[in-house]
UniProtKB/TrEMBL annotation:
Principal location class: membrane
Protein name in UniProt: NADH-quinone oxidoreductase subunit K
InterPro entries linked to this entry: NUOK/Mnh_C1-like (IPR039428)
Keyword set includes Phosphoprotein: no
Transmembrane segments: 6-28
Higher taxonomy: Bacteria, Pseudomonadati, Pseudomonadota, Gammaproteobacteria, Enterobacterales
Localization, UniProt: Membrane
Pfam families named among the record's database cross-references: Oxidored_q2 (PF00420)
Membrane association type: Multi-pass membrane protein
Amino acid sequence: GQTDGQVMYILAISLAAAEASIGLALLLQLHRRRQNLNIDSVSEMRG
């Protein structure tokens, strides 16, 4: 019913927010490393 749709909507919004926060954290970490270290060190983040 309608409750199932609302639960799916909340789940989708929560998942999108989690993805956005992870992406923002990765970009912030990349910016911090580039500012303090050599640009060549970005390739070291791959592992």
